[in-house]
Write a structure and sequence with these properties.
Elements: E1 3-10, H1 15-19, H2 32-44, E2 52-55, H3 59-69, E3 77-78, H4 97-108, H5 119-139, E4 144-149, H6 151-162, H7 167-171, E5 179-185, E6 191-196
Parallel strand pairs: 1-4, 2-3, 2-4
Antiparallel strand pairs: 1-5, 5-6
């Protein structure tokens, strides 16, 4: 049985990050600070080379791909299934850090605060996105792919694939512009190894 390498990279620092918003599906751009940090990472970080490169369809991810990979790789497609949590009517409301923490404690325990995408639905969506990508790549004879995506996607995949408790979601660190290189079984369902990048 073969393996599938999946590199997940979080978008750069965005206006939503700067303003303390639950941006979710909102198309907020990178800040100037975010672009500068990504340019520095392009010079100093060692991102794995993969056979395919994809991005969430939101502008903060597309622009992150351009800052990190322009001239080094070609974007093979946009993958909306790798979008962040959909926060519904809570999108783009400015929250204090303690309010963020309270919301995510409830969300992780399965309690919906409003009309946001539930944890169960979000987990199913991103796990399905990985399985579909792995299957598509396998059909094309491709064994590795990079996806520029969002922190919630990366954290949910790491916790789910590792079988970790809820608290691990909140404590898993995914800095802007960084991420993880995962080695999965060829179906994308079993995690064989994981390394921060």
């Amino acid at each position: 049985m073969g393996t599938f390498e999946l590199v997940l990279v979080r978008h750069g620092f965005s206006e939503g990050n700067e303003q303390g918003l639950l941006s979710g599906w909102s198309d907020v751009p990178l800040t100037q600070r975010g672009r500068e940090e990504l340019r520095e990472l392009r010079r100093t970080a060692d991102y794995p080379v993969t056979e395919r490169y994809y991005s969430s369809d939101l502008v903060r991810c597309r622009d992150t791909f351009e800052e990190l990979y322009a001239g080094r790789a070609v974007l093979d497609g946009l993958r909306p299934e790798f979008r962040e949590i959909h926060f519904g009517s809570l999108e783009n409301i400015r929250w204090k850090p303690e309010e963020f923490a309270r919301f995510f404690r409830a969300w992780l325990s399965g309690v919906r605060v409003a009309d946001e995408e539930s944890r169960e639905a979000f987990t199913a969506r991103v796990r399905g996105a990985v399985n579909t990508l792995a299957e598509q790549c396998r059909a094309e004879g491709v064994h590795s792919a990079t996806v520029v995506t969002h922190s919630g996607v990366i954290k949910t995949l790491l916790v789910s694939l590792r079988g970790l408790p809820d608290e691990a979601w909140r404590t898993t660190q995914v800095p802007n512009g960084r991420g993880y290189a995962l080695v999965l079984d060829e179906t994308g369902t079993e995690l064989l190894s994981c390394e921060a990048i």
